[in-house]
Structure of PB1-like domain-containing protein:
Amino acid sequence: MSLRHQVLVDFPDPKYAKYGNEPFVTIVMYHGGSIVHSPKPEYMGGTKCKFDFVDVFRISVEYLNTLGEKLGYQGPKSFYRLHLNTFRPLKYQTEIVSFTEGYSPHNTVFTIYLVCGETPNVEPQTEINVNKGKGVVVDDGDDTDLADDEWDEVFKIVDSVAEGIGQGDGQVESQNHGDA
C-alpha cells in the first residue's frame, strides 16, 4: 500500500490487471471535512487522497484506522461510504465485506469518507523524494514500487510540477464532494 503524494492525486489510477491475479485496489479517501445532509448528502471541505496497491482482502475496520493514522488523525475515527445517496457507516466487518463485494478487475477504486473530531496534529507519514528523470517516489515504508513504464509520462509531468512547487503558496484547495 502506498499513499499517493498530493501532487499526483488527480492522475490516473494504476492499471492493476497487469499485475496478474493480485487483488489490488485504490482507496480514495476524503478527510478533514464533514458530512452534511441538507439539501442533499455531501462531504463538505476537506482533502482527497489516494492509497494505491491496497489488497482488497486486507481491508478491515482496523486497516481503515491505520490509513487514518497515516494521514495524522489520532483518536476515534468514523468511516463512511456513499451508497444510494446516503452516507453509510463502515463500523463492522460485515459492512466492510458488503462494501468490497463490488471488487472486480474492472472495479478497482473504492471511495471512503473519514470524519474525525480531531484535526491532524502531524504531517502524513510519507517521505517524498524528487529524483531528476525518475519522477517523484513516495515511500510509506511499503516495498511496493509504483514507478513502472506506464507511469513514465506521469513522472515527467510531476518533475516539472515539483520544480515549480516553491513558486506557489502551497495551499491545497478545499472542495465539496457528494453524489453528483
